[in-house]
Amino acid sequence: MWMLCQTNDELKEFVMEAKKCTKKGKVADYIPSLGKANPEDLSIAIHYPNGNCVEAGDIEKKFTLQSISKVISLALVLMDRGTDYVFERVGMEPTGDPFNSIAKLETMAPAKPLNPMINAGALVVTHMIKGNSVEERFQRLLSFVQELVNDTNISFCEEVARSEFKTSNLNRALVYFLKQHNIIDEDVEPLIDLYTKQCAIEMNCYDLSKIGLVFAMDGVDPETGKRIMPIDIARICKTFMVTCGMYNASGEFAIKVGIPSKSGVSGGIMGAVPGRFGIGIFGPALDDKGNSIAGIKLLELLSQNYHLSMF
Amino acid sequence: MWMLCQTNDELKEFVMEAKKCTKKGKVADYIPSLGKANPEDLSIAIHYPNGNCVEAGDIEKKFTLQSISKVISLALVLMDRGTDYVFERVGMEPTGDPFNSIAKLETMAPAKPLNPMINAGALVVTHMIKGNSVEERFQRLLSFVQELVNDTNISFCEEVARSEFKTSNLNRALVYFLKQHNIIDEDVEPLIDLYTKQCAIEMNCYDLSKIGLVFAMDGVDPETGKRIMPIDIARICKTFMVTCGMYNASGEFAIKVGIPSKSGVSGGIMGAVPGRFGIGIFGPALDDKGNSIAGIKLLELLSQNYHLSMF
Amino acid sequence: MWMLCQTNDELKEFVMEAKKCTKKGKVADYIPSLGKANPEDLSIAIHYPNGNCVEAGDIEKKFTLQSISKVISLALVLMDRGTDYVFERVGMEPTGDPFNSIAKLETMAPAKPLNPMINAGALVVTHMIKGNSVEERFQRLLSFVQELVNDTNISFCEEVARSEFKTSNLNRALVYFLKQHNIIDEDVEPLIDLYTKQCAIEMNCYDLSKIGLVFAMDGVDPETGKRIMPIDIARICKTFMVTCGMYNASGEFAIKVGIPSKSGVSGGIMGAVPGRFGIGIFGPALDDKGNSIAGIKLLELLSQNYHLSMF
Amino acid sequence: MWMLCQTNDELKEFVMEAKKCTKKGKVADYIPSLGKANPEDLSIAIHYPNGNCVEAGDIEKKFTLQSISKVISLALVLMDRGTDYVFERVGMEPTGDPFNSIAKLETMAPAKPLNPMINAGALVVTHMIKGNSVEERFQRLLSFVQELVNDTNISFCEEVARSEFKTSNLNRALVYFLKQHNIIDEDVEPLIDLYTKQCAIEMNCYDLSKIGLVFAMDGVDPETGKRIMPIDIARICKTFMVTCGMYNASGEFAIKVGIPSKSGVSGGIMGAVPGRFGIGIFGPALDDKGNSIAGIKLLELLSQNYHLSMF
Question: Cα–Cα distance between C49 and C2 in angstroms, integer?
Fold first, then answer.
């Protein structure tokens, strides 16, 4: 079978090259726990359908999913509620605004978040996770993540969740605004609790590359042969990863890299090369849009050298 | 001494004329308690420095101050903190946006509310009321109102306060946004509690005209001779009443009426004709900007007939 | 009769004090001709109804009216067309946006400029000046200015007009936008020609103080006893001078100074103290809002020392 | 070789189905010439690399490219100037705003259009077409289109060009705004002349499907074997077709259809299924976003039945 990189050594060279730009980035410091990350870290795992995995860097190092979790909760909610229900409450359009913007909610009528990858939309998605309590809903989400990774040890980082819960004022503003417009009708604190736990789900590059692989294979885990989500939901998720997966740098990323990807402010990036493989990256130094600066560079190098763009 | 209207009968005719347009307005229904008001009500009291008062309509009927309270809390806070402190945290500029808009907070840097008459700015003002607890701060504000009216029976309507507390989601969104930008640093629920009580302070037209009179007389209660606020603070308040007192219809009102005034969604309007008299109006049918539709008409008639415009 | 300053010497001291802050400002350089002004200049003339005039600085130095002309063209157009016609096409509300902003035209429906003091609104006003040609319309406006100053020598600076005509791209953008929305229906270049000539009308402080005096005296020239505009139009103009005369610093100016005033990027300010006197100021060093930095300081000093605020 | 539809009859059924929704749309009437189109028209041509073509409807009927031309001028300009030069002047990010919006140009700094598919960006692209005169630049663009279609008879509709030239006030506003910010430095009227001619380039479905095929085949015309544009430019164009090709319905279209496509207000849609075939559609009844309502429906049916989504 054809593979991207045959050996870890081949991959390591690209990592060394990409690592150079970590100096231009900086770790997210608006969430205290994230500020402790080492800005020079860069690791990657590439997971093939046959179970092979090539890797470089410290792929055991754990990080929290942050915005990467938005794709996963979207997949769960699409299964829970169906596309019609979901897209009545959150739009499908990319936006040129920052991920945490509230202004467009006001100028658009009705106040429906433009897409599920900006915070306003992701909060509506998390709101739609079924369950009788925050605990039950979070457990359902976590089980889904464990199923995607095929590892029941995946959990979340309580310290990060707590840290973010305390500093989530902007997200609380978004939720209250959405409550005002009847798009969210649960209490704010439980929803923020659930959302910050979702963002704090923790894993390493290797795990993340397995999730990317499931999306790449249209919802099937090729190692177990098990279908984890319907094909159309996997495709909807990949589409959002292309049009709005990398914050308001998604358009540039689509042109320069062309791999459906989702990043988080922890410095993680999940990639899904359709039909071919999954990618997990961790590089906590961020550019000014909030994407892993070395992670993007690394994906650019791989895309150019191995012709990975889907366009 | 020269007076606007010599008799109640004279005033009553203007009220009858203005009342005709109540049909085009409607009472605020987004706050359940306010929705019960009778849209056909219209009453007015005009208070002269010599203690005389002309009146028309049921001037005993009580209503809550709502946004009218913004001018009063501003006066208190300017005394509590001084102008420099206050205007570092809230601007002095009118805005063409609706009173509850959040968008401009995001597009302007820093996220300082444009003026103390829009909700964002008024919340910052209430945040600055000194005191060790919500109770103490509210008591200080209420005492100030009682002093302005010279009546220790003035209190607040618990039902309205409770009703608004439950539905204040947009205000909570504003406060969380302002907390995110370090303009407000107290907890949200106590502040909303204090703010909704402030808005629920209750009085009748007659009482309100006395507050207008104190502003008209540059901070002195002419009946007692007591100075209740410094002259420059009274003038700052009147200036805001002209530039932003009537929501985003303030410019039109300045041209057509030209009396420093502040309205509330309960249908109240407080007017202060500089050096001459105070006005209290209650007419709960509102126009689409949130101002008492018949109240504005009545002020237009009075301004035209008695040349009250300050311009 | 009571007067602000009895002697030129008294006034000169305030000018010396205000002049200190010229260093913090800078002359407008986006219009090449204006860039040649001396940033240290500051002159003032105060004109009383009895014909007396106190002055300080080089009050013979000529400058162009720029945005000050917006009040004058508004007065002419209100006489030409009536208030209903005019205010169907331009609003009465102040805005927190910069004077040259186009964004709000798009977000508001219909695309009616918020007020006649921002460029979009002023262009609509100039569009409404009656006449069969640009020449005739400009001549009518110029005659009106000559009548206000009572001096038929007032003319315009061709060099400034030409310079601005060449660089008026933002105004052309505004006019095309307004044409698109059917608010303006004449050709763009003639209108820009007329507008840049209007802005280039030239006079000195002394002349400008006479125009201020006519507005102060509700439309009558007290020296000739002639009524130049109806009282209600003079009052509408003064109202706009208070709510939007000093760009998006109007609110602060109303609080700190409280004199109906209109400024231009040439560094001119026209003031009208109702019923008392007219003011003409020239100080070309501007603050970041586009107002004469020393001119504002000077008005603050005068307002505080002589209690000139109308609030 | 595998084909989408083996016969015209197969395709005709989908057209009959899609045609039902033409009643909900309406033809563009803001450009007088376009208003004459028959809203019930719907035609399609699908072009395979082997030269085969299946078709349905009146595929001989000509229409103008309008916004479809934006992709073609972009390809030409990328060849003329290189990607660095081009993307310094126009961005790569999708936007949630309408295609003709000017507001974001003002709120973003610098005033760089977000992408080349909105009008502001397309005007900057057309501005970059090399040549010594409008005639020469248009001839170069037209020759490029003729090369893409492999037909030297392709020309433009003078009536539509003239009609649009007269009504292009919003585009003139955009150009003047961009001139003000030094992003465009040529005269406005020649640029509008060139742009309206570009939009008025005329062809039928069959022709358009051939252009789609060249993009699908990464820049090579499979019938002649000739490379018409470099592979990376073809891919950049396809990426923009996905992220912003269908106005502010691009996100929804990516999810529901998943074919790189570009639409125009004439009712045309060009599709490029990567590596497989090109599509040309004409259906002038538009939805409220400006896309061919039946054309989108038809592409949805085809995508679902033949699994054409690239996601």
Answer: 11
SS3 B46: strand
C79-134: pLDDT as tens digits: 999 999 999 999 999 987 777 787 777 777 678 999 999 999 999 999 999 999 99
> What's the pLDDT tens digit per position in A203-250?
999 999 999 999 999 999 999 999 999 999 999 999 999 999 999 899
Which one, of A97, A271, A64, A42, lies nearest residue A164 by Cα? A64
Spell out which residues of chain C touch residue B95, defining contact as CB-CB under 8 Å. Answer: 94-96
Residues in chain D: 311
A9-41 pLDDT tens trace: 889 999 999 999 999 999 988 777 788 899 999
Range of the domain at C275: 8-63+204-305
Residue D32 placed within a domain? yes
Q: Is C116 a domain residue?
A: yes
Reported pTM:
0.94
Enumerate residues 6+ apart whose C-beta is below 8 A from B2: none
Q: Among this protein's residues, is A247 annotated catalytic? A: yes
Is there a single domain that holds both residue A72 and residue A161? yes
> Would you state the structure tokens that stand for residue D13, as one six-digit string?
């059924």
In terms of domains, do A78 and A126 share one? yes
Cβ atoms of residues B57 and B206 within 8 Å: no
Final residue in a domain of this structure, among A144, A176, A199: A199
- Say how many Å lie between the first and final Cα of chain A, rounded: 22
Q: Helix D69-81 crosses helix D119-127 at what angle (to 10 degrees)?
A: 40
Task: Determine whether A48 is an active site residue.
Answer: no
Which positions in chain C have a beta carbon within 8 angstroms of at least one beta carbon in chain B? 91-97, 104, 108, 114-115, 235-236, 238-240, 242-244, 248-252, 254-255, 258, 260, 274, 309-311
| Burial of B306 per CB tally in 10 Å (0-12, 13-18, 19+) | middle
Asked if C212 contacts C173 with a C-beta cutoff of 8 angstroms, the reply is no
Nearest Cα to B308, choosing from B251, B260, B249? B260
Three-state secondary structure of chain C: CCCCCCCHHHHHHHHHHHHHHHHHCECCCCCHHHHHCCCCCCEEEEECCCCCEEEECCCCCEEECHHHHHHHHHHHHHHHHCHHHHHHHCCCCCCCCCCCCCHHHHHCCCCCCCCCCCHHHHHHHHHCCCCCCHHHHHHHHHHHHHHHHCCCCCEECHHHHHHHHHHCHHHHHHHHHHHHCCCCCCCHHHHHHHHHHHHCEEEEHHHHHHHHHHHHCCCEECCCCEECCCHHHHHHHHHHHHHHCCHHHHHHHHHHCCCCEEECCCCEEEEEECCCEEEEEECCCECCCCCEHHHHHHHHHHHHHHCCCCC
Nearest-Cα distance to chain A for B243, in Å, is 24
> Is residue C85 among the annotated active site residues?
no
Which domain CATH number covers B105? 1.10.1500.10
Provide the pairing of β-strand C62-64 with C201-204.
antiparallel
Backbone angles phi, psi at C131, to 5 degrees: 150, 160
Pick among D105, D166, D169 to test the C interface (most C CBs inside 10 A): D169
Cis before D110 (ω within 30): yes
Residue C212: CATH number of its domain: 3.40.710.10
Number of domains into which chain B is organized? 2
